[in-house]
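Hi team,

Filling in the usual template for the complex we talked about on Friday. All components are listed, including any nucleic acid strands or ligand strings, so the model treats them as one assembly.

SUBMITTER: L.P.
PURPOSE: interface mapping
COMPONENTS: two
RESIDUES: 1059
SEQUENCES:
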Amino acid sequence: MGFEGIGASVKRKEDPRFLSGRGHYTDDINRPGQLYAFVKRSDRPHARITSIDTAAAKSAPGVVAVFTGADMQADNVGGLPCGWQIHSKDGSPMAEPAHPVLAVDKVRYVGDPVAVVIAENRQQAKDAAEALAIDYQDLPAIATVLDAVKPGAATVHDDVPGNQCYDWHIGSKEPVDAAFAGAAKTVKLELVNNRLIPNAMEPRAAIGDFDPSTGDYTLYTTSQNPHVIRLLMGAFVLHIPENQLRVVAPDVGGGFGSKIFHYNEEAIVTWAAGKVKRPVKWTAERNESFMSDAHGRDHVSTAEMALDAQGNFLALRVKTLCNMGAYLSTFAPSVPTYLYATLLAGVYKTPAIYAEVKAVFTNTVPVDAYRGAGRPEATFLLERLVDVIAHDIGIDRVELRRRNFIPVDAFPYQTPVALQYDSGNYFATLDAAQKAADVAGFEARRTAAKAKGKLRGLGYSTYVEACGIAPSAVVGSLGARAGLYEVANIRVHPTGSVTVFTGTHSHGQGHETTLAQLVVEQLGVPLSQVEVVHGDTAKIPFGMGTYGSRSLAVGGSAMVKAMDKIVNKGKKIAAHLMEASVEDIEFKDGKFTVAGTDRSKALAEISLAAYVPHNYPIEELEPGLEETAFYDPKNFTFPGGCHVCEVEIDADTGVAQVVNFTAVDDIGRVINPMIVEGQVQGGVAQGIGQALYERAVYDANGQLVSGSLMDYTMPRADNVPNIHVGTETTLCTHNPLGAKGVGEVGAIGSPPAVINAVVDALRDYGVRHIDMPASPQKIWSIIQAGRPRAAAE
Amino acid sequence: MYDFAYQKPGSLADAVKLLKGDPEAKALAGGMTFIPVLKQRLNKPSAVIDLAKLGLSGITASGNTITIGAMTNHVTIATNADIKAKIPGLSEMASWIGDTQVRHRGTMGGSLANNDPSACYPAAVLACDATIKTDRRSIKADDFFQGMFTTALEPDELITSIEFPVPEKSAYEKFRNPASRYAIVGVFVAKGPAGVRVAITGAGQGGVFRHKEMESALASNFSADAIANIKTPADGLNGDIHASAEYRAHLIGVMAKRAVAKAAGR
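RESULT (copied from the run log):
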């Protein structure tokens, strides 16, 4: 056994299973007597349902049942709940319109579930769905946030005038206004954060199973957080007590946030299984994923900075209009507020910030958290604004950043927008990234590219983000309707092997390896003897799952606490066995030793004694060696860093290609450097996707135009260069691991680095800003428009 | 997909007979377009006639002609030594279609019969002045393509092979749709027995077309400079979320210049 503890790049334990096609995903599960559900979706963006005739569908071959929203209503099925309540500026609670599982009276987006057909096989269910006779009365549709707030706009929900969900703010308006009044210079930028469609490799799937003999329900689902689904669906939608509802999220093939939320289909198959007394399976087709998985981003913003004569930031003013889609998805309201506007200080010591965020409903798929969730939007706004400031006032963009960075000795640093950063060193990550990216050699590369007809540009992004959203009491006061702790149960078996039951969920991140390495480090057990169990409410304690890069910082910290308890109990057992005082027992490298002696007992001897307590302090100590700990963080963690991107643009076609990318991140303690590298590379690939390729397009009537991979551009291997990943570490000061989180940094830091590089490449063409994605046609138009100017100068 | 009868005839005559006997039947070549269309329930044939056992695949080179069987897949075309040596533009075109899986399934005959406006092969066939051989006749490329998804084929007529007169020079340049990787603009340039021909795919509302202005400029001077100042009008070109008609018009010029420069250097 080589070194397998904290800091070892051990290979991922889960990979042989995934890479050899032996993963066990939801769609791989088949229950005896299983039926298949096909969800009939609205093809209208906005319409009143005047009638649904199910008779022909019900009598179609193989059909067992057809249900509509009316059937669910009649059975007292509740609407899908929202997990976060925002209050507007004026103190009023956000508009929270009903979110029926199957549409009632109205459909509000293309993809809105209208009815479900349950049949012996998929084909029969689909055939019968074509026999459903649904009459609609079309209504005017709202496709964009700008349309939603126009006076006299159609309303998505009859009970939500003006389509406004909330009008929220953060920071202080007066000091910002005062700073602007006295500023030497102000710079303003309007920008759009493009709407994205997540596209995890595994489409969503769900199987509802009902046991008539016990009345117990089981839901197998593609979820990042099975306990959250059990709570929301059991308590609010189907009214099934926890003891009768098991939720299993087995191997999950990517989530990126889109599998956090409680979706209609989960409730449909669970409820329908109870109705038809047979298991019911649903698996999304890719085109269903496009129109039913929660989308991401979709902001329109104005950002303004007030500066003094030396380029010091005095005040930031931001106005953002954001899209909730047609209904509130589970955590949607929190994303453009507490996960976005609280990050607007970024890595800068801007003393005054005021942000207003208006969220609106539109006739589009619900929008919710997507890798980064709010923080990419904040980072893009800020890092574009900083480059524009540098451009407008004629100061070097790196010098401007350094001048405004939060100083190294200023931590803990209280921002004007609620957060208190515990640690960080933005100078260190910037220095390291500049060195690794060979910024010094850039001009030579630029000249060489020009000789080949290519425009080469370099862009920076210096960012901070917030992970491990917490503490529970604080987020509760901000509107969260859930706790945000994490839990771990550590079971040391009689022979010393270990099973970890974690409340976090791995859907590609490699937890089965990373979390096991914590056990190697703390208990001295070899990696091969550690198993990590997650994703089944019947096995694991009530945990909150995985999102917001929280698993290590929060879930790992719970493990450390549980293992502390194991060690403490083990010391008592060891003291008894070796007839020593507990105070004299030391634990190191898997051995309990009487201090200053060569007398020791291995963990396996202690665990055996605990389960076979023949010689055991049974009067003072319970048998067994298994401990549970819940960990509620004291604060968020604050990963940050610097990304440097180089692009080359084909001046004839406008095609931009990322040719170099360097990410130097401060993610706190690194457990497995290889997994960290993979997480950052994957995140950066997604960021490059947002910056250059991806765009969810609705036409003016509310039809999703980019509704398949033929039109929605996911980044492919040839779009992504080899990404250099480095780390510069300051430890998190408030969790026992010092860990900050790495799952989202790539997607958060990279988009502005890419766009800043594109703008830099086009510096001779009079361009100040380009919205994402910087598509070939967009760049070509800029080159065309800029040619005369470039020629004249 | 909907239910359909599946037939796999062993001779061309049987396949044509099956198609003639059932107007709702559809022929299946490689299926790289047809199968997704079936899966999306966009087509409801009564029967699918699989052409795999008709012996229509293979490549033969004889004198100044290369004949490609209709059921020859892209990877075979891309890697064939004769095509590489004699029609390099066609070889590179085939190697850029789809991905490895698609190139092992998709066929030239299937692509031509479908005549997708953003498919690549129509540009090679038109620029090379190839002849499409069917079960009953020969059709010149200029007569074969009749608008998007429309060809000169009768409903029950099957392509058997495509005859390419070997050009002196050939090259293909493709500006890909970033999502689908089909051609937003594809330009095939050939200098052959029928003179210089420039065929554009992906851009035209009516599918593949010849760029006569470029052809006449290149006839006297086969170099990129000869077409540098030719502006292609945007009228009649496609526009979508990836590329407007104006952008496509511009790309035709860029891709054509690159194709000519490449062909001239061969």
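MY TAKE: Chain A touches chain B at residues 123, 126-127, 287, 652-653, 693, 695, 697, 705-706, 709-714, 775-777, 780-781, 784 (CB under 8 Å). The mean pLDDT of chain A is 97.

Thanks, L.
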